[in-house]
Amino acid sequence: MPFSFFHLLCYITIIFAEVDAVNEGASKSKSKLRLFVFGDSYVDTGNWRKSIGSSWKEPYGITFPGKPSGRFSDGRVLTDYIASYLGIRTPIAYKWRKEVKRSNLEYGMNFAYGGTGVLDTLANQPNMTTQIDFFQRLVEQKVYGKQDLDNSVGLISVAGNDYATYLARNTHDLQKLGDFTKKIMDQLEINIDRIRGLGVKRIAVTLIEPMGCIPLQAASSSYSNCTQALNLGSKFHNQMLNQSLQNLNAKDNSTAFITLDLYDAFFSALNKFTTHAPAGSLGLKPCCEGKEMGKYYCGSVDESGAKLYTICENPNLSFFWDTLHPSQNGWHSIFSSLRSSLHKLTT
């Protein structure tokens, strides 16, 4: 999730389309689960307002569903793949809860907003604490009762934007980054425990991706190498997060909290992608990017509507869609590396 506030200034309008999850052959025995999602653009499926969200602007969504659907990708994101694995449709985005039939709420709900973090970020959108407030309100209103929550799973993907915000505000003060990580962990542990306290039975938390491999960072090497200093920061965050989840499990004497290792999944998927992908594959280079780095972004247009971005010929040959987010192809590869961990959500 990571760094998606860089896209926030785009203005767009587009007709909303309700989107189903991809069928990955999940078992019918899992079909009664509810999925509740919290976090950032890696899992957001449409909570940004159409008038300001870059995820609602062309060419986002060109692979699936064929037009922008609020996802920060050309197609599906992590939420879609996990929902399909659980045997359910992708849960409705919180923003649209009053505009759909009650039956559309039976798969859970997605509270994630691209650009947000554990703490406040440069994106003026609900942080994780506020997202949980939204969830608590629905529980108190009996939108989801005890039986629903007894069959529920939580998904959390967050923190990349926290680091992006810190680095933007503290360019020359990286010595305190470790202290900032501890601050994130303190609040994140409170938030995760709170979701559990509201009745969610199993909660999967993503470890942070290798931040130095995001195209925005890899651009300085012409997309040939990751920035290792940022990857070390990701490792430190993940070590602390693993310890926090162990503490929470020990507190409840349970295994309710599990990790989804995005760090290793990214590297594994990237390695397979670069080793076995056909000629023309893009590696760390994004499929869609502004014509001028730092000034224009994927989806940028001028006053006459002319495109100020370029897009690759075949998104299926890309791992990254834009300078911040995986493509649908990338997410499919990442999900394949995560599958072995997901069985813990349903056992």
Automatic annotation (TrEMBL):
GO terms for molecular function: hydrolase activity, acting on ester bonds. Keywords: Hydrolase, Lipid degradation, Lipid metabolism, Signal. One of its GO terms (biological process) is lipid catabolic process. Pfam families: Lipase_GDSL. Residues 1-21 form the signal peptide. InterPro entries: GDSL, SGNH_hydro_sf. The keyword Kinase does not apply. Transmembrane segments: none annotated. Belongs to the 'GDSL' lipolytic enzyme family. This is SGNH hydrolase-type esterase domain-containing protein. It comes from Gossypium raimondii (Peruvian cotton). The lineage of its organism: Eukaryota, Viridiplantae, Streptophyta, Embryophyta, Tracheophyta.
